[in-house]
Amino acid sequence: MWKALPIGSADFSALRENHEIYVDKTDLIHRMACSRGSFFLTRPRRFGKSLLISTLESLFRDGLRCFRGLAIEHLWQDKTYPVVRLDFSKIQGSTDIAQFKEAFSNYLLDRFSDVGFDFDPNGTPILSQLDTWTLKLPNKSLVVLIDEYDAPLTEKLDQPCLFSEIRDVLNQFFRIIKGNEGCLRFFFMTGITKFSSTSIFSAFNNLQDISLDPLYGSLLGYTESEIRTYFLSYLERAGEVLGCGVDPLMA
Predict the structure, then answer these.
(1) What is the pLDDT of residues 124-158, one digit of tens each?
(2) Less crowded by CB within 10 Å, the N or C end of the chain?
(3) Closest by alpha carbon to 172, among 203, 202, 150, 208?
(4) How many CB atoms lie within 10 A of CB 183?
(5) Angle formed by the axes of helices 160-179 and 126-135, nearest 10°
(6) Which pLDDT does position 7 carry in this prediction?
């Protein structure tokens, strides 16, 4: 039976369990994930950023459980870690800074509570408590993955005052992550653009931007060779229906 096309699949574990086609990028993922680093990647929407985040989450949280038959299976030798996965597109839609702060605080509480963060509602603000908590974590004990870091900002480009206020809140969070980076085993962040003129990247100035790095040029999207290899049966069938071969179809 043919493997199903991975149309709209952004969950790596579900994709693998449902036997959908996965274009193997795990050699590049291994090259990046075997180091203790902080990485940043920009790509347009619908380019597979969320699937990459999900793949990294599966690797660090569950090990090689879903990677059988992939390149990384015989390369990866690390253990598993607590993983905090954040999707900042989930905190869009605020009409003022108070609403954004509340949504952001609740989201951080929900995500970090899963890995042992215990928030005291009668204590200091959540960012302050999160700072204290991460400071006390063992060295290289936590993985943080952030998808669409810029989503709350891009939706406010026509509201410069609110944009600046949201940016300042995000900047506080990134300063905590940067200030307590000793606890990080791995950090990865995606977006559709890099707001290099904002203070976010000065707060987190050790990020390795791989967006234009030739080593990772094919980390997302498909090369022509990958299309011909992984989707050949579909190409051949389409060629039959259209009355042409694979090469004219590719052209």
Answers:
(1) 999 999 999 999 999 999 999 999 999 999 999 99
(2) N
(3) 203
(4) 17
(5) 20
(6) 87
Q: What is the pTM of this model?
A: 0.94
Q: What secondary structure, in 3-state letters, does the chain show? A: CCCECCCCCCCHHHHHHCCECCCCCHHHHHHHHCCCCEEEEECCCCCCHHHHHHHHHHHHHHCCCCCCCCHHHHCCCCCCCCEEEEEHHHHCCCCCHHHHHHHHHHHHHHHHHCCCCCCCCCCCCHHHHHHHHHHCCCCCCEEEEEECCCHHHHCCCCCHHHHHHHHHHHHHHHHHHHHCHHHEEEEEEEECCCCCCCCHHHHCCCCEECCCCHHHCCCCCCCHHHHHHHCHHHHHHHHHHHCCCHHHHHC
19 vs 4: CA distance, rounded Å: 7
- Which of these, 216, 251, 248, 246, lies nearest to 231 by C-alpha position? 246
CA torsion sign for 169, 171, 176, 177 is: positive
Distance from CA of residue 36 to its chain's centroid? 16
Residue identified by tokens 């994709």 is: 15
Size (the chain), residues: 251
pLDDT (tens digit per residue) in 60-78: 999 999 999 999 999 999 9
Per residue in 169-223, pLDDT tens? Answer: 999 999 999 999 999 999 999 999 887 655 666 666 678 999 999 999 999 999 9
Residue 34 identity (one-letter amino acid):
C
Q: Which residues contact 128 (CB under 8 A, 6 or more apart)?
A: none
Cβ atoms of residues 27 and 44 within 8 Å? no
Q: How far apart are CA 207 and CA 214, in angstroms?
A: 17
